[in-house]
Amino acid sequence: MDARGESSFVTREDRSLAESLGRGESEAISRVRRWIRAAVTPFRRRLGTELEDLEQEVLVSLTETLRRGGFEGRSRLATYVKKAAVYRCLNRIRDARKRTFVSPEDVRLRS
After folding, report:
1. What's the distance, CA 85 to chain centroid?
2. What is the dihedral angle through the alpha carbons of 82, 83, 89, 93, rounded to the nearest 10 degrees?
3. Per-residue pLDDT of the chain (111 residues; tens, 9 = 90+)
4. Do residues 4 and 12 lie in contact, with contact meaning Cβ atoms separated by under 8 Å?
5. How far is Cα 20 from Cα 109, in angstroms, rounded to an integer?
């Protein structure tokens, strides 16, 4: 239990890794990238070429969140990272459904 009386799942290793990632240490970044890649792999077919950008967005967002102390420790860090990546993928897929694609043949240029 933590100081607030809540159960904490965070290990010392999680805290150390979160701090290292927040500082931008390469070993922490590599480890977290592997977690992100594992989480987004099931979406590879749906997201195609956007997947690499999305992986980078997740990493940047996580780093910023950790710098602000946004990781509360209600789960293991790996779980937190993977869930963040999955939710980012799902949001991207939802957003793609809302877009209207127009063929260049359908557009008339005004003279």
Report:
1. 3
2. 150
3. 455 444 467 788 998 999 999 888 999 999 999 999 999 999 999 888 888 999 999 999 999 988 888 888 888 999 999 999 999 999 998 887 776 666 777 666 665
4. no
5. 53
Q: Which of 15, 18, 13, 43 is nearest to 29 (CA)?
A: 18
Structure tokens at 40: 């987004």
Cβ contact 73:32 at 8 Å: no
Q: How far apart (Å, rounded) are the C-alpha atoms in residues 90 and 46?
A: 10
**C-alpha of 32 from chain center:** 10
Read off the amino acid at residue 31.
R
Q: How many residues does the chain have?
A: 111
